[in-house]
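Researcher: Let's try something more involved. This one mixes different molecule types, so please make sure each is placed in the same coordinate frame as the others.
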Amino acid sequence: MSPPEKVDVAFRPVRAGNAFEETVERLLQAIKLGAVAPGDRLPPERDLASRLGISRVTLREAIRALQESGYVEVRRGRYGGAFVVYQAPRPARGDLERAIADLGDRLGDVLTFRMAVECGAAEALASADLSPEALETLERRLADVNAAGPDDYRRLDTAFHLAIAELTGSTLLAGACADARLRITDLLNAIPVLRRNIDHAAVQHEAIVSAIRRRDPRAARRAVREHLEGTAALLRGFLA
Amino acid sequence: MSPPEKVDVAFRPVRAGNAFEETVERLLQAIKLGAVAPGDRLPPERDLASRLGISRVTLREAIRALQESGYVEVRRGRYGGAFVVYQAPRPARGDLERAIADLGDRLGDVLTFRMAVECGAAEALASADLSPEALETLERRLADVNAAGPDDYRRLDTAFHLAIAELTGSTLLAGACADARLRITDLLNAIPVLRRNIDHAAVQHEAIVSAIRRRDPRAARRAVREHLEGTAALLRGFLA
DNA sequence: TGGTAAATGTCTGGAACCAGACCATTGACG
DNA sequence: CGTCAATGGTCTGGTTCCAGACATTTACCA
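Model: All components are placed in one shared frame. Result:
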């Protein structure tokens, strides 16, 4: 037998690192991702801390960091909370290059990962026995994206993609999709939202939902694949 | 627009929980997974601690727990270390039911996740431009499984599956596959290794490698899908 | 036979993190 | 116009976790 079957992936890190930094990162991504729309507020500290599995103290430190960086505005009293004041800026020339450079050689990693999990989610959803409510949620997200203005587009696009993952009912898969999306948000936000691209995406989105609706896993997968490949190709192009 | 697009997956836990318990779990799974064969030793404490991203103290506590449970044997001095003494027992009647009950309603979640990431990995690998060394590694793992005795089978089967993920070069995807495998190990170990099943699996493994070799992503995906679906169906059957 | 390298074993001080109790503020609503 | 519930703000004591220095053990090897 061949001796060195070192499966080093079994010894990968148990924890990501510092709880505070992780939390800042998570919240920041939740904001950029649009899980909380500008003007809305984060859940109450006690709730959020328990959902994130950290103490309120640590969460508060993270929120303060976001406050000092101008992402949220904290108000006290009843109906108070941490309100999102961040509005994703229109991408400027050079943003994309910078974001890609930040990601470094992990770009390919992320793109591969995203392709695998999002295609998998779509296929799983199209194989499942969807409740009418679930289907309605999906249609609603699709309508939201189609009705979005330029400032809302990325946010609602993300919500649509993540809805597919969440509706599979697999929290592991949904988590993986969210993770993939988080890692690529900065890149997506750096791509200008052009009319032509939106229209193209809308057709593809429709194809995805249609495949899911008629329970055609292979078509669902193919549709997602084509949808993501456009972005992937664009980004990989900047590596040359 | 439809107001409540609560993407609660964005607020999922930042950290898994207790570092000590997480570490015990991880090491235990690494052993059951066969990342370290019986008789072999874990990496030195300092190495391992840094790889796992925890302190040596915490790692030592975890190792001591494994020692007291009889999984490893620790020897001091040069050429010492934590040696694996655990030999996966032949599954007994009722093990599988117990393992499934332990997993509870997360079974579907795990199966869906596993299907998505392993299919994704195979497809990605079949789309990639494999180096001769990579291909050779894959062939070697395949040969290892085919040459395995009953006691080694699960371990080498795991090594084969994880090799596919690792060779994609995407650490995220490899990590996800390892994670999926970890979560399902107890189930797999509870399934008796029958001659008939081994032969069947060997044919499917060959189909997977063959598809990768001739760079046919769709065939690779389909082969993995069929391979995993057998297990999934078997397990789901126990839910009824 | 003794030196040495590589490993585990032990200790200390400090940083990070937590749980929970309590305080302060605020806007809605009766 | 006062009450109150929901929220952020603060404090205390304790636990977990860490980094690093130092001690001990052991097998190879000159």
